[in-house]
Design goal:
2 copies of one chain form a homodimer.
Chain A (H helix, E strand, L loop, with lengths): L9 H30 L3 H11 L7 E2 H8 L3 H13 L3 E5 L7 E5 L1 H25 L2
Antiparallel strand pairs in A: 1-3, 2-3
Helix pairs in contact in A: 1-5, 2-5, 3-4
The structure holds a DNA duplex.
DNA sequence: GTACAATACATGCATGTGCAACGAATGTGT
DNA sequence: ACACATTCGTTGCACATGCATGTATTGTAC
């Protein structure tokens, strides 16, 4: 029922885009407020913690890799990791092979914070996402 | 094929949300850059101009009404209209009935700018939206 | 009619973000 | 070995946004 994979029809395209934009605004706003209020972290912080917590590689993940995953610019991610590091939720570790690279890995406190925040995240998603994307 | 209207299943919910977020990031970034580069206005400015241009009411639209339509806070819209007014693309007019209210209406220059920018907007949408929302 | 709540918009302030420039380290060609 | 381009992350800067507050106007209760 959606013109997502259809031929680019101008009117339908705009309608689809407005739907995406509106859905994103509502849900991301609700997520950000709930996470901030109940766990003291923003949505971007949560997303990064989640990627780090669910990475099987014990070394962590590269900065650029993370930036792509959460759709942030390089600079935004650099500062975001800086904030999380000050809060003691992640650590930076130099990469031995390529000394330009940095591995970010989650700390125990960071994992605990993520586990505490996950139910909130899922609950808001369950409440807002179906309503926002009919 | 979409879990949009399905029962709130945690994993699928997260997956759907990531899809929406990624789609929004890619498309809004592309739109903003293209509009800024080719027409000197940002995506928010374009969206507001479009709402004003396609309003049948000649008086324009109320500020709060516009804020809801483009998913911006009231303060953000106030400043946005301020920028557009300085650029000569919109005008503010006091509302006679309720002197607290303000009507924003588009100028000839604003309509011309919107008409010039619309093809760019549609083209980027046609190029990025289907690719970003498969 | 006077006091009080509610609405509509503007503004001070703090913050997160992207762009451009930078520094450090690695790869490449000669 | 040396110069040069490239990649990775950080930082200075400008700016748009949201929150809280302020001001003006309207509605409501008494």
């Amino acid at each position: 029922m959606r013109a997502v994979s259809a031929v680019p029809d101008p009117a339908g395209l705009v309608e689809t885009w407005r739907g995406v934009a509106q859905c994103h605004a509502k849900v991301s706003g609700a997520l950000d407020k709930a996470l901030e209020r109940e766990h003291g972290i923003g949505l971007s912080e949560f997303e990064v913690l989640e990627r780090l917590a669910t990475t099987e590689d014990a070394d962590g993940r590269r900065m650029q890799d993370l930036a792509d995953a959460v759709c942030l610019s390089q600079s935004a991610l650099s500062r975001l990791i800086g904030r999380l590091e000050i809060a003691g939720l992640v650590c930076r570790a130099m990469c031995a092979a390529d000394r330009r690279g940095i591995y970010a890995h989650i700390t125990d406190a960071g994992r605990a914070r993520w586990e505490a925040a996950q139910p909130t995240h899922r609950a808001v998603l369950a409440a807002e996402l179906p309503a926002a994307a009919p």
